[in-house]
Amino acid sequence: MYIAKPTKEQLAWQDMELGVLIHYCLEIYRPDLGGDWYKTDRVRTALAPETIRPEKLDPAQWVRSAAALGAKYAVLVTNHCTGFSLWDSKVNDFSIAHTGWRGGGGDICREFIAACAKYGLKPGFYYSTGCNGYYNINDNWKWDYRSPEYQAYVKNVEAQVTELWTMYGDLFEIWFDGGIIPPEKGGPDLTPILRQHQPHAICFQGPRDWAHNTRWVGNEDGLAPENCWATTNAGEARYDGTVPDEKAGVGDPDGKYYWPAECDMPNRTHRAFGGGWAWKAGEEDLLYSTDELLDCYVRSVGRNANMLMGMAISTDGDFQDEAQFKAFGGRIRETFGMPRAFLGHPALSEGKCALSFGESVPVKYVSIREDIADGQRIRGFRILADGLPVYESACVGHRRIVPFENLSAREITVEITKDAGRASIRDVAVY
After folding, report:
1. What residues form DSSP beta bridges with 428?
2. Distances in Å between the alpha carbon of 178 and those of 79, 139, 141?
3. β-sheet bridge partners, residue 233
């Protein structure tokens, strides 16, 4: 029986569980303009670099906020749909280096990398390959990808990602929003550049032949489906995030590719500017609450996916919602920092292992982690409290967190009810 297996890079990525996606996107400077203007060459005049004057732009403050959250990795949006670059690109002049920040010649990417090293986070870069206002490439338009116009754009994409992937050292994750048009259809040929310069990088919606891919979960709400398999099939993991898609999140337990899901969500609700991804003054009441975020954590990290929290950077250049991150990080540590009971690498008897407390105690969460180095093999499990079934489902994977209300027990048992051979449990914890 074929079972797709993770690479060591994918295993390390799944162990991170929680990351951030940092959005400093220039459309925040022109909230008066509506529609998709920022995906057109109107940005050349509406967002001329010399007009951008962030007074508090400090990438170290962004990363410090992510560390307070408890994030283990950070992905910086280096070039969003406007086409504005956060580094001193030699491909064009539409970049942070041509603003007055740091007196001109500044490089946000370099300071971000240094901040990640300081605060102990793994760094990653987002680059929009399918949409670039500066070059008048709008991913909502129909294109002849073989046309001279588009092929000229493709060469610019290849040149800019080469800069990003060669100037800043090893990257933990590289983000392709909406996936990549394959080279055989006229898109950029990125796999050779990746192999040469970033062979160990995790790629979100990367080239199909890339070994260390992850996939979109199917929504931007930070929520994985109840059973979210790390494996899937080609054609089921290529979405642009605009329309929720349950199938993308579920995957396939017998899928050909090991592409675990990443749950991205903004730190402000979708009613906020830019769907919550972009900052706007006076929208502090649209921040997600700590309770809402903890629920998303349980239904993303706790459903075999990674949670990627958006960070909406202000027009001043700072992250003004740092208190939200501190509160959420504190709640995660308070809830899951110290288990009531823990069992590591348990020996299973008839597919079961048990944690006993000696007396009846409240049980709010049961966390189960499968040993997935040889692929996902648990296909069914249940939880028993004092011998009585209280929960049953199919997928465990890297981690499954099951919440309970009004449950007390003297003993919690985890039982594997179905497997694909040689299933084992990494650990079980009760909170």
Report:
1. 343, 368
2. 14, 9, 14
3. none
pLDDT digits (tens, 9 = 90+) for 14-70: 999 999 999 999 999 999 998 999 999 999 999 999 999 999 999 999 999 999 999
Pure H helices in 201-340: 246-250, 290-298, 322-336
Residue 240: pLDDT over 50: no
Any long-range contacts for 192-198 (C-beta under 8 Å, 24+ apart)?
193/158, 193/161, 193/162, 193/165, 194/165, 197/162, 197/165, 197/166, 198/165, 198/170, 198/171, 198/174
pLDDT in tens, 332-381: 999 999 999 999 999 999 999 999 999 999 999 999 999 999 999 999 99
Instruction: Locate all alpha helices (DSSP H) within 243-355, ordered by sequence.
Output: 246-250, 290-298, 322-336
Measured over the CA atoms of residue 12, residue 59, residue 266 and residue 214, the dihedral's sign is negative
Per the CB < 8 A criterion, the answer to whether 315 and 279 are in contact is yes
Q: What is the DSSP letter of 168?
A: S
Domains and CATH numbers, the chain: 8-336 (3.20.20.80), 341-430 (2.60.120.260)
What is d(CA 219, CA 240) in angstroms, rounded to the nearest whole number?
A: 10
Q: What is the pTM assigned to this prediction?
A: 0.96
Give the Cα separation of 247 and 252 in Å (integer): 9
pLDDT band at 220 (very low <50, low <70, confident <90, very high): very high
Q: Which residue has the tokens 């003054």?
A: 281
Rounded to 5°, the CA angle 238-200-82 comes to 50
Give the pLDDT confidence score for residue 1 in this predicted structure: 85
Nearest to 157 by CA among 123, 124, 183: 183
130 to each of 198, 244, 370, 378, 401, how far by Cα in Å? 21, 19, 37, 38, 36
Q: How many helices (H) and strands (E) does the chain have?
A: 9, 18
pLDDT at 234 over 90: no
**Distance of alpha carbon 269 from alpha carbon 76, whole angstroms:** 20
Q: What is the mean pLDDT of the chain?
A: 95
